[in-house]
Task: structure prediction
Amino acid sequence: MLTDTDLSDCLFSGAFHLDQLRLGKPAFAYPPTGWHYRGIWPARWSRRRTLAEEHHWRAQTAGQPVLSPGDARPPGQWRPGPHHPNPALTPDPEDIAALYRQLRKAFEDGKNEPGAADFYYGECEMRRHDHTGTPKAERRLLWGYWLLSGYGLRASRAAGWLLAAMSLTVLLLVGFGLPTHDPDPATIGTLHNDKISLNTSTPAPALHGGWDQRMSWNRAEKATRVAVNSVIFRSSGQNLTTTGTYIEMASRLLEPTLLALAVLAVRGRIKR
Result:
């Protein structure tokens, strides 16, 4: 049983039966703070508890300089390991994923599901970067899972994608999906001797006019109702053009998935 113990520099690599540990309130290391660049895009590391082995691997792959004795580590860098920058003596993502998996099970066995969330995140991160033990297709799937919802643990990310997808759906419906006028049914009657035959037909929805006529608050309100009903209530009740029908079909497939990921992320943080 470990409680009130500083494990920020503890090396678990090489230990056995880590899943049998009981972790009370240990202190783990955290990712670097501040902004950094992924290519040309600014980003910042997700706040979570991490193992020292992950710090050492990321410092080695990032090519961080070796610190002289007594030098303070900048807050925007990972903690270098004792064998930095030798990759042969630094644990690789496959080994670190196994450590996260065992410690996650230790938290789950202690009925601490929210505490295990950070270790599940770390396990998925290492599997996503593992080019030897994880197949390429699985890494791409993990990359999409991370991008959309932070492995089902970042509700704000999934909600942000949901809001962006719904906004795009509204814009496409206003521009291409809603007809200019709601089609009016037409009834035609034919008299044969003493009998009247009636036939009611509804013309296909049609879109006319330029962008100045399409972009209006009234059409935007209708498109918003269609998007919200498609995500939550699963029915639009609105006549759409052929293009609008396909737009709605795509929104029914993608947007409820993003909503479910957001709910899953919230559940993962409050589950007991």
Notes: The chain has two domains: 18-153, 160-261. The radius of gyration is 28 Å. Helices lie at 52-61, 93-109, 113-129, 136-149, 155-177, 211-214, 217-233, 242-270.
